[in-house]
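Consider the following input, taken from an annotated entry for diguanylate cyclase (Oceanisphaera avium).
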Amino acid sequence: MKTLIFKRFLWLLILLSAMVLAVTYPVYLQYQQGVKQRLLANEETSVVAASQLIQQEMDEQLHVLGLIQHSARLKDYLSSFDEAHRHQLELYFQQVSTAFHRFDQIRLLDNAGRERVRVSLVKGQDTITPKAALQDKSDRYYFTEAKNLAKDEIFVSKLDLSVKHNEIELPHKPIMRFSVPVFDHDGQRAGVLVINYLAKGMLEKFRQQMRKRANQQGMLLDEQGYWLSNHKRSNEWGADLGKPKHTFANMYPEEWPIIARQRSGVLETKAGIFRFETIQPFNFNTQLPSHFMAQHDVVLTEQSNNNTTWKLVIFVPYDYIHQRSFLYQTMGKSLLILLGILLVGAALLIAIVSTHLRVRRREQRRLNEVLHDLYDNAPCGYHSLDDQGNVIRINQTELDWLGYQRQDVINQPFSQLLTPDSKDTFEHFFNGFTQGLPQENIVLEMQRKDGSTFYISNSATILKDKQGHFSAARTSVFDISERIELEQRLELLANNDGLTGISNRRHFYERGTFEIKRAQRYYQPLAVIMIDADHFKNINDQYGHDVGDLVLQALANKVNENLRETDIFGRIGGEEFALILSPTPVTFALEVAERLRRALEQVVVVTNKHEEVHFTVSIGVAALSLPEQTLDDLIKQADIALYQAKAQGRNQVVLYQDES
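Applying the prediction step yields:
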């Protein structure tokens, strides 16, 4: 009897154990897979954020490179190669370097590879290299690769450590070199523009992004598997530092061939899970937010694309996965032991299934809370509009930008949040959008509750009802105030004289030509005044060019103090200044000129040695008299009168008289 009971017990035990195992094992596998998927889903945020960070950084460098390449000061120098334009270009390079503070060097090489202008970042200061210290770079790869490129082609080097005097600079300087051909005003090839971009800031942002992850094992590799960034800093720059074994391939010999061959994916190994993604920071055709796209068409050479093909690799060890798995924790092990002892198959199975259901519901709620938090606290703004343009949903980020509470905005017209000028732009954009016309990167100026404004770039997608009609617009909003401010600042640099702050020659001629045509159209009087500092060369020779610069600045400031808002004032030569008065009769122009002469006669410039420098000016005046006259004609006439003033003893005003 006992033997039979024991045998039946064994069979029942085996059967119940098999039933429990058959039911619980798939659940276990599914649960473990769910843990992995949730961890990988969280890692996707890091992958996307890091990829966008790198591509945005590269997009900004292309933007700056294009601005310098097409700048008027660069083309002016390339068309003349004279010292005055060279000095202006040096100041422009220095101003750009100071504005961004991320370039180790900005250089202009001529067609033979000889440096013409170089500005370097030395001990945190943007320093102009003296002409005598400029070097021949004709044998350097960044010149040979770029010297024969087409007009819109760009060469980009590998990201490596800077070498100076055949030794790696300390502290380490990760650098990428951007080279582009440049052309003069006539479209003739005139040299190569090279900027050395310091990638230290970009790599530090990448590391900060990786440190936000739980296990912080995020890496950036070059095409050979050397670390550009690693959570263990000692592994970085193996190729540059002569450490050929410090590669991903050496540490993970089985994983590297797969990661190197495939563009992206997930690789499970014995040690853990690798999530990898190929980053090509200059491939702007990828599905990234439109505000990261390049602002102009550029063509990179094939070598440039090879140089900048990187791998982003995130590693999640199984130890970390197990820490997140319920079954590897104390409570899970206790349940397994209890299940093996009691063999209450059905009850235990129901308990496991119900527990899993509750865990899943709780996890879903948590995920919903995370998604809601990501929506509300995203780094960009989000809002949705109904078919009337009223706000039906908005995230907290955008509310914080505006300074409003949610109840102040919901069900209110979105146009009320815009400045008057942007309302018309929005109405045009929204009407076209509701008709199904594509609308992206629309720039609007929003107005905060306190009255201040900021610029946004927004892209929208259409939500349709079941009948296919427009239902709502879901819009992502990016604050681009810094970019707009940068563009305005660069425009100011392009139009203003670097020394005195007034209009430069090009900008003066643009405004002056328009003003003369307007005066001729409406038959209004107009006068041109030329001002030249007397004995300016003697001032430079006696006190030095720095004092000469102070004299020119004092001259410009004093003239500005005595002008109207409608007057046009610019520096058109070394110590030559021009002034356009409109609408102004010649008698009044002569009074203005005499008043300026007397005012400038009283100016005192104090040098660093506490010496007082006085100066006078000679002034020539010419009046618009013929309908076919141009600005050049008036400038020449005023210049003739100016030289008459100098010939008659200087420090006086002379009106041009037509002797014909």
